[in-house]
Design a protein that fits this description.
By secondary structure, this protein is an alpha/beta fold. It is built from eight helices and twelve strands. The strands form three sheets. The chain has a six-stranded mixed β-sheet, with helices on both faces. Helix 6 runs parallel beside helix 7.
């Protein structure tokens, strides 16, 4: 599914190198958690995979199902099946949530040469996803994320993911700002989307998220590289010992 080899990336504005030879393999159907101290490059990795323009890849390869995606734009990567759930979802005044969801879904379908969904089919898909995530009709009528709580924004992103059905879902600190109830709802939404044809990269500081989204593999990231990998028990070890042995934050 996802194959990253010797990935080097830097910030375009100042040339600071953040990723320094990162290697990662995520097979289809698996959930891989990435943990590490602040400044280790976890969010940068998510942005580079999604195609954010503020970063320049200087070496290495990123392949999705055997296809190099580094030369593709963010929209093209999304159409190939890459989805990024942000740590802090943006508010977009003036853009209705339903309008955004329908436009996004149909844009990806057009890019793949598929027909657009009809209004009745779209409404059916949204209603099912919203019901599963506890998203009210009032939320769906509002501008995208405007006036939403942190938990509501994260639920809205999982709804987007449910509609788009990506191949690779990257969750960048999805647990940030969530109380226990919201964390459970969001995690249940993610777990319902687990399938043999879909992979997840879950970026988090804390083990608590992994109580609800059970990873197949846990990786420790430090100073721009994966420095250790193991099973779910590794997250428990990190919770007890912290990241001191992996060096100070970059």
């Amino acid at each position: 599914m996802l194959s990253i080899k010797n990935l080097h990336a830097r910030i375009e504005d100042n040339g600071q190198e953040i990723l320094k030879g990162l290697d990662l393999e995520v097979p289809a159907g698996q959930v891989h958690a990435i943990m590490g101290p602040n400044g280790s490059g976890k969010s940068t990795l998510s942005y580079v995979l999604a195609g954010k323009q503020d970063y320049e890849v200087t070496d290495g390869t990123v392949e999705l199902d055997g296809e190099d995606i580094l030369e593709l734009g963010a929209d093209e990567r999304a159409a190939k099946g890459v989805f990024l759930a942000f740590q802090y979802p943006l508010e977009i005044p003036g853009v209705g949530t339903m309008t955004f969801l329908k436009a996004t879904l149909n844009a990806q379908r057009r890019a793949r040469g598929e027909g657009e969904v009809s209004v009745p089919e779209f409404m059916k898909l949204v209603k099912k996803g919203a019901d599963d995530l506890g998203i009210s009709q009032d939320m769906l009528k509002r501008a995208l994320n405007v006036g939403f709580s942190g938990g509501e924004k994260k639920r809205n992103e999982i709804l987007q993911m449910a509609l788009l059905q990506p191949k690779l879902a990257i969750l960048d600190e999805t647990d940030s700002g969530l109380d226990i109830d919201a964390l459970k709802v969001v995690s249940e939404g993610v777990n319902k989307l687990r399938s043999p044809d879909r992979s997840f990269v879950v970026i988090t500081h804390y083990q608590r998220l992994l109580n609800y989204i059970k990873p197949d593999v846990v990786h420790v990231m430090s100073k721009g590289r994966i420095v250790r990998s193991g099973g779910p028990e590794l997250a428990l070890e990190l919770e007890k010992k912290g990241y001191a042995e992996y060096g100070e934050a970059a």
